[in-house]
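Working notes for the structural subgroup meeting. M.R. asked for a predicted model of this chain before we commit to crystallization trials. I am recording the input and output together here so anyone reviewing the notebook later can reproduce the run.

Input as submitted:
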Amino acid sequence: MLNTNSIKYYNEILSNINEIAKEYSKFEAIKSQELLTNERKLCEIIKNMSSGEKESLYHYIEEISKDDAELYVLLYSIIFNVSMDNECIDRIFEKVMLNELEYTISVGLIQNIYIYIFAHALKSYKYSKKRQVLENLKNRFASILNIESEMLPVSDRNENLVIVTSETLLSDQHAPSRIVLEICNALQKKGYEVIVMICSELKYSLLSCYNLWFDQYSYNYTDKYWGEHIIDCDGYMDFHLIQLPVDSDHTKEAQYFIYTILERKPLYVWNVGGNSPINEIFGMYTTLVSMPCSAGVAVSEAELLIRYMNNDEDVSEIIKSQYVIDMNMNFNMNKITKKSRSEFGLPDDAFLIAVMGNRLDTEINDDFIDIMVEIINNMSEVFFVFIGEYTCDLNKWGIDDKVIRLGFRSDFVDVISVIDLFVNPKRLGGGTGGEIAIRLQKPVITLGNCDVASAVRSDKFIVDSYDEYVPLIEKYVSNKEFYMEQVRECNKVIEFHNNFNMEKEIQRVDGEIRKYIYTS
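Returned structure, recorded in token form:
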């Protein structure tokens, strides 16, 4: 039982949380100083609590929000986003699995958590729990669609039809979309009929929880693809595309297309990226093959899991009932137009460090900025080049004039070709940029256990902690012999890429899938 002083103390904390919620609700492009101040204050309070005090706070939150699941989620989302206390994720997961929130909101919350985990390199977070949540959401949506499980016998399937599913299809500059295009192209060249189904549940589910999840993410879609089309992409064979909205408000559309696909009796479904309940539903009818767009294995109950980047996460006990296929991955690189630095507004006589990503506002945090500050203060010839949107104010660190913001660039390969060094912040993504840098003979610095570490294919570019970044960057800048030694290491990786054929690799994996289907 909490005493009066404890209740007063926790109410003061909740008042601070309320101020954060009110400020954030303004949805300004750049966080206000008041919002940042309140975030730091709450973060310090949470981090300085004993385990007993924190448990009491969380118990108090449970009590005041026991009849209001949305308030419960909002409070824990704010605490999690400012303190990164994983206990908050556990509690939100449990609330979702109690089915106290509307299905679409539940999917939006889970996807926001997954995106946050990805952006902050927390992927090792409780794989088994993520699988349980996904199974819960799959069953809920199957119930909404009135779908009952009935696995198609292999003998009844169309052995020449494969379905490729994903959550979005943008362009060949977007790595997950590029994977979809390459798979589709290789399978069609092997003789399959391929239908690509983009199950865009995130468009609606993320919107549904704008007032519940702090630090909301958005998701991009190609609007012209809604519906059913034959798509023509440069460099690829034409393919059949269905892009449909998937949530509890669009059940008729989802039912129509899902049943249309299932009536064709596909041999298997190859799911690319994401943790989508709708794609798990396909596994109730035919063989589901699931691959992530990052290191490790997909969160999925699929019979087959494809792994093309390694990480340190040990999930062997959890996935022991599934068949795992290891796959190599590499894309043909866009041709370089050999632009000069000046054409990008970059100084000719500087040492340029590129930082590239789709979520730089999240990934370039205070720890990474401290590295930048030390490098810039120690080495006047260094400039940082951001490829991707970055809106945060760097004036208070006094380094804004040494940071060049290029925004999103379709010609990012050309930009990387004129920089000196590619530096990866702590995150799980970024593999495409790291791979391109190496293939352009630009050395990379990255932490391990992430997509970039897998993509660079050499321990020579991987370090254990941020503590190693500053001395290593300074060595690259000041020691030409060391720099050229690292360029020679790039050349070893380039040799692998030059001898690799993506089309043949996908067709090899398809052969393994077919062998599993017909012999298991």
